[in-house]
């Protein structure tokens, strides 16, 4: 019997009624929270491209395409997703340091908004295919400004030791090449990292933009994504509106007249989704008290990959335990909760902030099948991803 004394509601649906209908673990999205985020972004009037890599669920992409309409992609499969949800004019930015020839060809043929080029070799490939097919394409150059985003080392992308972008010291030569090749050069692109919670790296970035803007003025400056979300209850990061208001003020201060582009990912869905799971086992020895959940690094890899914190909550009845693990056969399949809390066998457990970089990074490790995604949608439950089917030969033997 699953126990919970907590009656948590998502858009008037109690989580109790969810576990009685679906197998656990399960991703549960909150439609209201999603709409709130979409309209918050739209209200800023900043030219925003949704970074599909953070969550590519088709139902959610359709929602985005109704309100934001522009997408930042890093693969041919992501372009395919956009074509699937939106047959009209495609506003796509193609980012990424390892574009394939077919990805370059498709981008040229679709006449996307921009390819953000990251190396000299990539530039030559684009030039070759544009010439071959007598087409031109909008280009932005992604620059590596050697700025620390002051977030997590593994999600920092704008430092000199990162693989991303063209070293800022090579910019003059690069601009010369672009000029000779006669591309539609439209802007500079920077994405210095993810989960940025301080404005100081962005201030440094604007000082650099001031210098390079003298070499060549551009129509667009793309500062990428990176706006942080709250994973912790007591470490609240900078508010969305204040963050972008400060950036708009910087643009005014420097008298820039380019149009700002942002490529947000995590902010869209990060805090709109929980995983509902349950405790499968408790285990005590002399040193450790352990709880083993039925959700692990195959469904949510962020804790083991980056030591990321996701708030975990249960009904607070039972044994005081700090060490919470998943069921996967790896010692690193562990959650990083800060305090111990009371937990017991079969308790329901909620893992918060699972809407971005969770399902998209999930795997079939240990041959586990991907789990259901549901959305609580106008007081109803809608399945937006069906649990993968398991070719069940075992039943013949039970
Ligand atoms: N633009 C570019 C070029 C990017 O590489 C990314 C994310 C974004 C935009 C969106 O950034 P966001 O607004 O989501 O921070 N798996 C990691 C995050 C990796 C971010 C990769 N690039 C995590 O779970 O924290």
From TrEMBL:
InterPro entries: Ala_racemase/Decarboxylase_C, DAP_deCOOHase_LysA, De-COase2_C, De-COase2_N, Orn/DAP/Arg_de-COase, PLP-binding_barrel. The active site is at residue 329. GO terms for biological process: lysine biosynthetic process via diaminopimelate. It comes from the Bacteria. Residues 27-355 form the Orn/DAP/Arg decarboxylase 2 C-terminal domain. GO terms for molecular function: diaminopimelate decarboxylase activity. Keywords: Decarboxylase, Lyase, Pyridoxal phosphate. Its cofactor is pyridoxal 5'-phosphate. The modification N6-(pyridoxal phosphate)lysine is found at residue 53. It holds the Pfam family Orn_Arg_deC_N. Residues 45-268 form the Orn/DAP/Arg decarboxylase 2 N-terminal domain. Belongs to the Orn/Lys/Arg decarboxylase class-II family. This is Diaminopimelate decarboxylase. The lineage of its organism: Bacteria, Pseudomonadati, Pseudomonadota, Gammaproteobacteria, Oceanospirillales.
């Amino acid at each position: 019997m699953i126990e919970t004394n907590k009656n948590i509601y998502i858009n008037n649906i109690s989580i109790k009624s969810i576990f009685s209908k679906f197998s656990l673990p399960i991703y549960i999205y909150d439609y209201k929270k999603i709409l709130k985020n979409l309209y918050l972004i739209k209200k800023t009037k900043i030219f925003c491209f949704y970074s599909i890599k953070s969550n590519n669920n088709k139902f959610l992409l359709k929602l985005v395409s109704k309100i934001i309409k522009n997408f930042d992609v890093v693969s041919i499969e992501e372009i395919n997703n956009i074509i699937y949800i939106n047959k009209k004019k495609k506003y796509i930015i193609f980012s990424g340091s390892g574009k394939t020839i077919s990805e370059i060809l498709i981008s040229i043929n679709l006449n996307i908004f921009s390819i953000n080029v990251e190396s000299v070799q990539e530039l030559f490939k684009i030039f070759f295919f544009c010439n071959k097919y007598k087409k031109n394409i909008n280009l932005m150059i992604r620059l590596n400004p050697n700025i620390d985003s002051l977030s997590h080392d593994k999600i920092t992308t704008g430092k000199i030791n990162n693989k991303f972008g063209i070293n800022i010291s090579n910019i003059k030569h690069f601009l010369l090449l672009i000029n000779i090749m006669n591309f539609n050069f439209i802007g500079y692109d920077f994405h210095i990292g993810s989960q940025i919670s301080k404005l100081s790296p962005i201030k440094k970035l604007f000082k650099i933009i001031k210098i390079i803007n003298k070499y060549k003025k551009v129509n667009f400056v793309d500062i990428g994504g990176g706006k942080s979300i709250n994973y912790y209850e007591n470490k609240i990061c900078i508010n969305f509106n204040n963050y972008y208001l400060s950036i708009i003020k910087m643009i005014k201060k420097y008298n820039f007249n380019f149009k700002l582009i942002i490529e947000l990912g995590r902010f869209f869905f990060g805090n709109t989704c929980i995983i509902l799971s349950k405790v499968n086992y408790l285990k005590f020895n002399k040193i450790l008290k352990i709880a083993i959940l039925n959700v692990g690094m195959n469904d949510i890899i962020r804790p083991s990959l980056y030591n990321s914190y996701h708030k975990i909550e249960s009904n607070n009845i039972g044994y005081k335990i700090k060490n919470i693990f998943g069921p996967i056969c790896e010692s690193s399949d562990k959650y990083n909760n800060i305090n111990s809390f009371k937990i017991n066998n079969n308790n329901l457990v909620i893992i918060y902030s699972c809407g971005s970089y969770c399902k998209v990074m999930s795997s079939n490790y240990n041959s586990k099948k991907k789990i259901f995604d549901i959305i609580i949608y106008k007081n109803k439950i809608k399945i937006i991803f069906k649990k993968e089917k398991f070719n069940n030969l075992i039943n013949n033997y039970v």
